[in-house]
Every structure is written in C-alpha cells, then in structure tokens.
Write a structure and sequence with these properties.
By secondary structure, this protein is of the alpha/beta class. 56% of the residues lie in helices and 15% in strands. It has eleven helices and nine strands. Helix 2 packs antiparallel against helix 6 and helix 6 packs parallel to helix 11. It is globular and about 50 Å long.
Length: 259
C-alpha cells in the first residue's frame, strides 16, 4: 500500500514538473512571437500597416457604412481643399501654440535649429492616426540625424493631445490646434459630411476630443519646411487612410541636405 502511494506521489510530481516546463516554454514562445510581431511592425512600411487596417475595416463594415465613408472622401476631393492647401514652393505660415506643458512653441524658433517636419493628425480617436504617430516615432532618430525636428498638430483639446502623446511615448512636440486655426492658415481644413460626422461622434466621440461641434478636420497633411521657411515637400490626400511614408520623409531630408 505504501509503495502504491509513493508511486502516485512520484507520478504527480513528474506531471507537475512537466506542466511547469511546458508553461515556461509556452511563455518563451509567446514572448518570442510578440518580439517577432513588434519587429514586423517596425520593418513594415506605414502604407502596408494602413492598408491592413483598411482591409480589416472593409471586411467587417456593413455596406451602408462603407458607402457613407466613400461619399465622405469624395466630398473632400470635391471641396477644393487640395487646391487651397499650401504646396511645395510656398512660404509656410509661422504659428505660435502652447504645448500640453504650457510652453509656447513657435515655428520660426524651430526653424532656427534646422528643418521642420510638420504633420497633422485628426485625433487620438483615429486608429490610422495612431499607427502613423507610432511609425513617425520609429523614424524620429533618422529625422534628427538629417537635421530636422518633428512637430505634430491636432485639433483635439490639450488634455487629449497629452494623453495621446503619453500613450504612444512620443518624443516630439504634439500641439493642440484648437479650432483648426493654424490648419486653416495652411488651407487644409474641410467639413465632414453630416453622415460621416454622425458616425464619428457615435463611434469615437469626436466632438469631446475637439471640444466643439464644427465637424471640421484637417487633412492628414505633412510638410517638410527648410530653414528659410520654404515648403520643400508636401503630402496632401483626400483619402485620410493615406499618409506620408516616414522613410520617404527621411529621404527628402537627406537629399535636401546634399543640395
């Protein structure tokens, strides 16, 4: 009887050790998989990541929602905003905004240090914007290596922009352009269609982020501005799911440094 009890105890101990080893191996596998996924995300171009998210939306969204969104993009194209927007060769309007820490940030002060990559994002509620911010952060060292600083503007309120910056551990200026005042000077503001605005507010609470009911947003525009204040690169697109490729921005900065 004692021998049988001893055998059972030994069997249980062996089984427990096997489970622990299996659990440890599983954790290692999961950790390795997570690292691979992180590496894949870093290595993939931004366009590939945005296209993946767009494809996922197309698969899960109903026909009505897709129709409303597509009509919204067409409305932006027909609004004339792309024609009004500042372009390559134009002098970038100076601006002064207060960052989330209460410090005044002025474009001309940054231009004294070197070139500026100036980009707009719609808000922390926008998944395409969050992907873009992450990829810009990954490319930031290359911008700086080519003598440029990155500034991001958003119509969302300061506390929201601070939350977005902290969430994504951003190492560049994120400024609240409440009411799209600066975006309007650059000619990149457009009004959402009523149906798109209704969906954004219902799904994301856009009005709470922006603190107004204007239902206006900036294009997801990106400019590279040289030390003289001249725009040497401009990314403008009515399709909000298209964004400037960070590696392309680096190339523009590198090429301009060699002129």
């Amino acid at each position: 009887m004692r021998n049988q009890v001893f055998i059972v105890i030994v069997a249980l101990l062996l089984a427990s050790c096997q489970l622990k080893n299996k659990s440890a191996d599983q954790k290692k596998d999961d950790s390795a998989m997570h690292k691979v996924e992180e590496m894949d995300e870093k290595q993939q171009p931004l366009k590939a990541l945005l296209d993946e998210k767009k494809t996922a939306f197309e698969l899960r969204a109903d026909d009505h929602k897709k129709k409303v969104y597509n009509e919204g993009i067409e409305a932006v194209e027909n609004s004339g905003v792309l024609e009004r927007a500042y372009k390559v060769g134009d002098t970038a309007p100076n601006f002064s905004l207060t960052n989330a820490l209460g410090e005044t940030v002025e474009l001309k002060d940054y231009l004294k240090k070197g070139k500026v990559v100036l980009t707009w994002y719609r808000g922390g509620w926008c998944p395409y914007c969050n992907l873009t911010l992450h990829q810009l952060q990954e490319e930031l060292a290359n911008f700086k290596a080519n003598g440029a600083n990155l500034i991001a503007l958003t119509p969302e309120l300061p506390d929201k922009s601070l939350s977005t910056s902290e969430k994504h551990e951003l190492g560049f200026e994120v400024l609240s352009d409440v009411g799209n005042k600066v975006a309007r000077e650059y000619g990149i503001v457009y009004k959402l269609t009523d149906e798109v605005a209704e969906m954004y507010n219902a799904s994301f609470g856009m009005e709470k982020y922006n603190g107004d009911q204007s239902n206006e947003l900036p294009l997801a525009a990106t400019y590279v501005i040289n030390e003289d204040g001249e725009i040497i690169y401009a990314f403008l697109d009515a399709e909000y799911r298209n964004r400037a490729e960070p590696s392309e921005i680096t190339k523009i900065l590198s090429d301009s440094a060699n002129l």
